[in-house]
Amino acid sequence: MSKVLIQNPKEIIEIDDWRIAEDNKIYPEGSKEKSLYIAPNERIYDFIIPNHKYLFKLSYSRYPEQFWVEIIAYKLGCLAGVEVPPTFVAIDKGTMRVGALVEWFFSYPGYSTELKMSGANYMQMLISNYDRDKGIQHNLKSIKTLHSFLKKSFSFNFNWPEYWAKTLAFDALIGNTDRHQDNWGIIWSYKDKKPFPKRMTPVFDNGTSMGHEILERNFDSFNEPSRLEKYVLKGTHHMKWSLDEDVRIGHVELIKRFICEHPEVIDAVKRILYFDEEKLNNAIMELTTFNVYCKLSEKRANFIEKLLIYRRNNLIEKLKI
């Protein structure tokens, strides 16, 4: 479960004096602008780890409030029992840019060297002529093969069905259509100078969700139930069920198939969906009080909550749990 770290509205992080990490130029994956920073050596806030890396993520220029989605995803992960990297509101006062500051989820200070290998690396090893740019062959069956190999070759006894059930359920809950091959991975470490798989990554990079692309002037049109239902149903997961299927399927259908094949994960999915609505409302509405450029408007906060509750209820109904 995600660590519950609290940032109050008076603790907006200023990163102007933070150092840029040496590997900043080789890291960034994806299309949104981001930079890798290192926190100061002294503790500035209880929720910031001194001398640790943090990723400062900005929104698409067309959707300036998008970065708030990453922060809400962390809040929701804490409530739903899904490990999401701690994410906070930060500002670069020199450029007046506001974004989401995401805790780097490996190689913590004082621990042994760790390495993240993205899912794309494994897909390329498993699937000939894998298209890493588009990821059209990205699929769950190949991931199952990967975990079987890791268990046999490295004794990696990770509960992969529960991990993926929780990840798929969380993506369906927030409406994430971008869990591509670089948005999951495995953390490796070393023992006796030999690499071994240590753990799966948390559920990171959740910004393409929660109706981020819908402009505020169009919110009222979603008061029509049929419009809301149509919007939710058209969303699909990035990965397919298997390599031999041509199209991606909807979030609900993908989870249905997964539960059918792994019925032991039902309770894990159920725990994600039965979160406290009042706590969610409090967490989201508090973010509207952060006094920064590009504030989270109350209208968008209410719209995001409306979408989350609708998706949650739809999943409970369709999955019959």
Q: How does this structure look, described?
A:
The protein is of the alpha+beta class and 321 residues long. The chain has a domain at 115-270: Phosphatidylinositol 3-kinase Catalytic Subunit, Chain A, Domain 5. Helix content is 35%, strand content 14%. The protein is built from nine helices and nine strands. The model has no long low-confidence stretch (mean pLDDT 94).
Helices and strands in order:
Layout: E1 13-14, E2 19-20, E3 34-38, E4 53-57, H1 67-80, E5 87-92, E6 97-103, E7 115-118, H2 119-126, H3 140-154, H4 160-174, E8 185-191, E9 194-200, H5 225-233, H6 251-261, H7 266-273, H8 277-287, H9 298-319
Parallel strand pairs: 1-5
Antiparallel strand pairs: 2-3, 3-4, 4-6, 5-6, 7-8, 8-9
Helix pairs in contact: 1-8, 4-6, 4-7, 8-9
Nearest-integer average pLDDT: 94
β-strand percent reads 5-15%
Distance between the termini: 21 Å
Radius of gyration: 20 Å
Helix content: 25-40%
Counted beta strands:
9
CATH fold type of the domain at 115-270: Phosphatidylinositol 3-kinase Catalytic Subunit, Chain A, Domain 5
CATH architecture of the domain at 115-270: Orthogonal Bundle
SSE string, helix = H, strand = E? EEEEHEEEHHHEEHHHHH
Structural class: alpha+beta
Summarize, please.
35% of the residues lie in helices and 14% in strands. It has 321 residues and is α+β, with helices and mostly antiparallel strands.
Name the descriptors.
321 residues, alpha+beta, Phosphatidylinositol 3-kinase Catalytic Subunit, Chain A, Domain 5, six-stranded mixed β-sheet, three-stranded antiparallel β-sheet, 9 helices, 35% helix, globular
